[in-house]
Amino acid sequence: MTPETKMETKATCPYCGVGCGVLIEHDGARITGVRGDPEHPANFGRLCTKGSTLHLTARPETRLQFPELRDTKGEARRRVGWDEAIDVAARRFADVINEHGPDAVAFYISGQLLTEDYYVFNKLMKGLIGSNNVDTNSRLCMSSAVAAYKQTLGADAPPCSYEDFALTDCLLIAGANPAYAHPIAFRRIEDAKAARPDMKIIVVDPRRTDTAAMADLHLAILPGTDIWLYNAMLNVLLWEGQVDQAFVRAHTEGFDALRDHVREITPAVAAEICGVKADDIRTAARWWGEAPAAMSLWCQGLNQSVHGTHNGAALIALSLATGKIGKPGSGPFSMTGQPNAMGGREVGGMANLLSGHRDLANPEHRAEVARLWGVDSVPEKPGLTAIELFDAMHEGRIKALWVACTNPAQSLPEQERVREALARCDFVVMQDAYRSTETAPFADLLLPASTWGEKEGTVTNSERRISHVHRALPPLGEARADWRIVCDFALALGPRIGRNDAARLFPYASPEEIFAEHAATTRGRDLDIAGLSYALLDAHGPQQWPFPEGATVADATARTRLYADGRFPTADGRARFVVPTGRLTAERADARFPLRMTTGRLRDQWHGMSRTGKVARLYNHVDEARIELNADDMATRGIRSGELVRVKSRRGEVVLRAAASDEIRSGQAFVAMHWGANTLNSAGANALTLREFDPYSKQPELKHATVQVEKAELP
Ligand code: SF4
């Protein structure tokens, strides 16, 4: 490649919710490198270890390059053409729909998809097929944060931005390890602390993570006790006169009930429940109360809980009670795990949502979406959420499943049950860029999708910022863009289920046309982006929502500081305090399963490792699946670091290498979520986790399961 043939294409990193801008270096035929986009406001040119090795993941031999089909379970799949693949998919889905009804089919999709892909999947299921059975792996990621925002602030609109890290005086990081999971956001936090050493950083996490290690105060609470900690902080704020009574009176509802609830939750009471010092709880509350600007940052540690919604609501209550919201450096900020979980929420790509942050349960919202799409109605019956969907499949009620860009046979809890469900499903389609996922063996039809570097569309990152992602190269082999596959399927399916309007509903020739329709559906909503277009994003770079028609880039700062006027998108304009309910954890440790296992991410791996697992240098940090244990627990069991151990829960078992860790206290254990089929016995952490979920968000408690550990006697 000569310097003249070197080209750069603007895209975003397809890993985490920070949404860093990347410049893909290529020669028109091959991706040769990647560098951070210095103009992107999420990262200003920086990339972490995962982002900076993206070009090394572009390996053709790992890709699914043409459709493969089998007629009978257990047979080897054979290569087929796209026409046959789409025809068979449409026939098999139509047969199920016509015989068993539309609720016998389901889509299980992904926060890795671009917004345009998400939009057409959603429209196909809810507007053409006539079911709401479309859910996503984002259910495992941020659905509790969505529910918490809606219950308290009235809309799923995280009000903060990354620039707030540099403006806050107190940052409370709760159930998150951005040093590993959101590294470039963490760099910005480190920069803020370096520039203003008086800024207080509080980290709440059962483990002493790299994030906790840099905190001014680390509250190593026992798993599942989050609500009691935040309620006790509110107790202190009340007792010490740090509640902003004027803000509470003018802009909120329900404070008296929460005040009565937390009256008895003193620091001493919470200290007992949470396993931390009462004085440390007082210190955290004082730092929050005395700081001119205070913000919280949370992620899966709060969300993946049987009371994930109320974890978030209890944290948000601290912002509302002190009036520290809608101001620079203040507010509750949930990070999304995935690169486009936020975009999926915007198009309503979940079983309980509709386009433009509308609610399926709201008849007016259903009527609005039906009118916008030009269909008679959107079905009223709630769709099946992730765990419910696989339960229904296990029971034989879902007979055809379409999986796109995700790997449920690795990532859902109670893996044995999930794999049984997949094996029982009459017809499974897997649309993916990679062929060697744990889900692939269950697929009757594999459809090759284009991937990072080959796709155009938009993504929205954790700070509500929409980026236009460009395509550097054509799709590999016969792979096609995800939105194109969905539209081709819709056109083939429609006439077979008596819907001759499929061509009118799916007329798109480009992702830009889909984006324009999506933007129009948001008009007048809290996330109004009717003023955005690909052309504007190209001319002015990524933009935060809202961006209504007539808005300008110049007025962004004032427009995107949500709730600055103290008005919230509820019926009366007031935010709500929520009195929390719920048990500590679904499972309690006992004599048989005495260790409390949490799960989480490693710095250099991503999800089920379909990309990062292909890059040798990303194993330098941690090179195999392992269980981290406190040295005391290892000594009690006669286990030494490096030995193989058998880890059992009530649902399954897995063999892992033991590693002593001083990051966790006795009685706890940690297993990274990434490994699956590549562990010693082809099972990862989710062989052990359980499917119990939050009643509002339906997000499962992936952060806690009780286990026993013993030396492995291998055959
Ligand atoms: Fe990619 Fe996240 Fe790293 Fe940014 S911080 S480069 S988005 S993995």
TrEMBL record:
<protein>
    <submittedName>
        <fullName>Molybdopterin-dependent oxidoreductase</fullName>
    </submittedName>
</protein>
<comment type="similarity">
    <text>Belongs to the prokaryotic molybdopterin-containing oxidoreductase family. NasA/NapA/NarB subfamily.</text>
</comment>
<keyword id="KW-0500">Molybdenum</keyword>
<keyword id="KW-0004">4Fe-4S</keyword>
<keyword id="KW-0411">Iron-sulfur</keyword>
<keyword id="KW-0560">Oxidoreductase</keyword>
<keyword id="KW-0534">Nitrate assimilation</keyword>
<keyword id="KW-0479">Metal-binding</keyword>
<keyword id="KW-0408">Iron</keyword>
<feature type="domain" description="4Fe-4S Mo/W bis-MGD-type">
    <location>
        <begin position="6"/>
        <end position="62"/>
    </location>
</feature>
